[in-house]
Specification:
By secondary structure, the protein is an alpha/beta fold. The chain folds into 2 domains: 215 residues, Aspartate Aminotransferase, domain 1; 250 residues, Type I PLP-dependent aspartate aminotransferase-like (Major domain) (Aspartate Aminotransferase, domain 2, 3-Layer(aba) Sandwich), CATH 3.40.640. Helix content is 40%, strand content 12%. Strand 1 and strand 2 form a beta hairpin. The chain is globular and about 65 Å long. The chain starts with 9 loop residues before the first strand and ends with a helix. The relative contact order is 0.16. The N terminus is likely disordered.
Length: 488
């Protein structure tokens, strides 16, 4: 399964360097491309929240890579031999073997998805008066930690929030800030240090092995646990291999094992890392394992399935092993880079360097006339759907919260994330996305803001509803018809 060679690219006779799909498509799913008037009707029906769009109305679903990756033929085949025993399942034994092979971890707790792992971890180790330093938060992670009474401290580097940059590891943790947090709170009040592989909310940006090694040394010196969210470990592995000195010729498995050697425990969403639904918590520390173990049967299910079906467990075991295949983990990053480079060359504000997970448009620079209080990332997500049928995800102030006075806590960045599920899109579809984004950028002055109609108190971006301020959607549709005629 291992491919330890350097990244291989193919140069076309025309001179263009183009990513190639290192797989063939054998099962397909029908797509719909609605007329723009129908797309307008659909976004109004969804309350200008792309989460509430129906799949039948979406052409390219770039909302997330969570649970939307394409499984391999071997994964599908494995599902047919699942052992459906409630306890002591042979399928679970296979999964534990894969965990050992891939992560080099002896103890494993299965859960139904990544946020379930966050729940178990927060309940086990977080309490009022403690702090969790991290390179950047994720929405559900922060919610679980704060619900348990702990405080989140983000200690990202100065490069992290720069839109245009050539810094290769914008997901690094700022060492000086980390030392300051430990000094101010006291090591005994640090619940754990959390490292997120492929920082989701700031563009899927990786951290370096050197930075992880340094943070690990600090944690060990202060007797603080180091936790890693490995949900996006595939992309972080890829970037360490191609960007960090000393790792280009090292097998993926060895890189991953070195990463895990610096951590005390880790968790993952199988919907991302293994292309299957489910998740888990891993550790080599028996005491850490025992502090979490008894919560799994209470909240998730028995210890040999943890809320997953045995078919998912079989597919997960295979999917994790496939993580060690360089061709598998390089597919999404190379396609993302293709779109990022294409948009950047046209002057369209996009997060650089290209990260993992997806292409991230900087809505704050894309439509600077829309203030943050009118949710530019959400407005851009709605506008792109109307213009193209592409569903992206708002990663800005809508994804934030309100303070004690009821005011929005403005996000550090306003991003529209266009996720790249693994092995799902073709290059022609990516070129379509490039074309429609360019058209939208050329007509960005037409895009206006949004306001709330229905706002949930927690994780409002999932089910909340908004409406446009003014008639900007009608103007966008009229301009589209002027430029494209009867075209979809």
């Amino acid at each position: 399964m291992e491919n330890s060679g350097k990244l291989k690219t193919v140069k076309f006779y025309s001179g263009e360097v183009t990513p190639l799909e290192m797989h063939k498509v054998r099962v397909v799913q029908k797509l719909n491309l609605l007329r723009i008037e129908e797309r307008k009707e659909a976004i109004y029906g969804a309350g200008f929240n792309t989460f509430l769009l129906m799949n039948k109305d979406v052409f390219l679903d770039m909302l997330t890579d969570s649970g939307t990756n394409a499984m391999s033929d071997n994964q599908v085949a494995a599902m047919s031999v699942a052992d459906d025993s409630y306890a002591g399942s042979a399928s679970y034994t296979k999964l534990v073997g894969a965990i050992k092979e891939v992560f080099n971890q002896d103890y494993f707790l299965p859960v139904h998805q990544g946020r379930a792992a966050e729940h178990i971890i927060s309940k086990s180790f977080c309490r009022p008066g403690t702090v969790v330093p991290m390179n950047y938060h994720f929405t559900t992670t922060k919610a679980h930690i704060e619900m348990a009474g702990s405080t989140v401290e983000e200690i990202y580097t100065d490069e992290a929030l720069k839109t245009k940059s050539d810094f290769p590891f914008k997901g690094n943790m700022d060492i000086n800030k980390l030392n300051k947090v430990i000094e101010e709170w006291g090591a005994e009040n640090v619940a754990y240090i959390r490292f997120e592989a492929g920082t989701n909310l700031i563009g899927g940006q990786p951290f370096s092995m050197a930075n992880l090694r340094e943070v690990s040394a600090i944690a060990k010196a202060h007797n603080i646990m180091l936790l890693m969210d490995t949900s996006l470990i595939n992309e972080n592995l890829y970037f360490i291999k191609i960007r960090e000195e000393g790792y280009s010729d090292m097998p993926i498995k060895d890189i991953l094992h070195e990463m895990m050697s610096y951590t005390d425990f880790s968790y993952f969403s199988g919907r991302k890392v293994s292309c299957t639904r489910g998740g888990g918590i891993c550790t080599n520390n028996h005491d850490i394992y025992m502090k979490m173990r008894d919560w799994v049967p209470l909240f998730e299910g028995f210890l040999t399935y943890g809320g997953m079906s045995v078919r998912e467990i079989e597919a997960m075991a295979v999917g994790l092993i496939e993580t060690l295949d360089f061709n598998v983990i390089s597919h999404s990053p190379t396609f993302i880079k293709y779109l990022v480079d294409a948009l950047d060359s046209k002057g369209i504000p996009v997060i650089t360097p290209a990260g993992g997970l997806g292409c991230h448009l900087d809505a704050g620079l894309f439509i600077p006339h829309v203030p943050q209080t009118q949710y530019p990332a959400g407005a851009l997500a709605a506008a792109l759907f109307v213009a193209s049928g592409i569903r992206g995800m708002e990663r800005g102030t809508i994804s934030s919260v309100r303070d004690e006075n009821g005011d929005d806590v403005l996000a550090d960045v306003e991003l529209l994330r266009l996720a790249f599920p693994r092995r799902v899109f073709t290059l022609s579809q990516i070129k379509y996305a490039e074309d429609r984004i360019q058209w939208l950028f050329d007509n960005r002055h037409l895009i206006g803001g949004l306001e709330w109609v229905e706002e949930p108190p927690v994780l409002r971006f999932f089910v909340g509803k908004l409406q446009p301020i003014g008639d900007w959607v009608d103007k966008l549709v009229a301009k589209f018809r002027q430029d494209f005629g009867d075209s979809l």
